[in-house]
Amino acid sequence: MLYQNLRSRRLSILVFMALTLAACGKGQVPLEPVRAVKVLTVGESTATTDLEFSGEVRARIESNLGFRVAGKVLSRPAEIGQRVKAGQLLAQVDPQDYRASADAAEAQLVAAQINRDVAGADFKRYQDLHVQGFISIAELQRRESAYISAQAQWKQAQAQSSVQGNQSGYTRLLADGAGIVTSVDASAGQVVAAGQPVVRLALDGPRDVVFSVPEDKLGMLKTGDKVKVRQWVDGQVLEAVVRDVSASADSVTRTFVAKAALPKDAAPVLGSTVTVSLGLGKNVAKTLKLPTSALRLEAGTTSVWLLDPNTMTVKAQAIEVNTAEGNDAVVTSGLQNGDQVVLSGVHVLNAGQKVSVFGAAK
Q1: How far apart are CA 312 and CA 305, in angstroms?
Q2: Could you give the CA distance from residue 120 to residue 115 in angstroms, rounded to a whole number?
Q3: Integer Cα distance of 263 and 228 in angstroms
Q4: Could you tell me the pTM of the whole model?
Q5: Using CA atoms, how far apart are residues 357 and 362, in angstroms rounded to an integer?
Q6: What is the CATH topology of the domain spanning 35-48+284-357?
Q7: How many CA atoms, within 13 angstroms, populate the side-chain half-sphere of residue 38?
């Protein structure tokens, strides 16, 4: 009997200890932390549909100049940025061979002229003999033919001499007009072919702004439109008129080149960078803007977290973004005035999660 009582007590103690240990090992489920977030109350703002492009100031007339003959470049006085006058020497190739050819052509001209003069004198003498009846008409005609042939050879030699003289003059590359050298593509000692660009010259006169327009914005620009041009150097704003829009896209960038004429009295630095604005101050519209930090991309859809002020929880809201203005995104649908959007920490929130507004009074 005593043994059975001891055994019952031991079983009771073991059961009690097992139940105690089981109760201790069962922890409480941790509650999800309440995150502090910054929110923005959405409201319409005024925006313009202006488009801005980066452009470059160029001369209306810009020429690639090259020699009309081939040869070795002896000198190239022209340098990038140098202002030159009309007729100023820009570069020169070796003229020795061309001068020798010109001298040879000149000697042939002298010989042809002598032959012509001798044939002319013979023909005049034989005309007198024919009048006196000493020679036949056939002999006179032979002398006339010889004179006509000598005359033709003289004209040929004269033309050849003129061509060779021009070739010798073409060894000097001269400026077509006053302007600024914008590029040099050959140096002394280099052998160049006829027509190969050596110097690029921007002539004085009208200035254009050249900029590229993507295909989807091409319909917003046409010849005659006025655009605003802001210089990067000093911020000065000029009004220009579009005078030409390319009919085909660039093979590499797939954009269309547009040119706008600057005012005649404007003198911006050639090659300077400017900003071209289309339709400044027009097409004013009401838009909804959000900082880009509030956006989240999930499964190809752009969304934001909306705060429910009654339950202080967040829910996902899909939106559509039209474009960007600086660090803001222009939202076209998905939001309404008065919606409270979470601005930061959007990637660590979950749907239905409890939040608190950062900086709100407790």
Answers
A1: 12
A2: 8
A3: 12
A4: 0.55
A5: 10
A6: 2.40.420
A7: 7
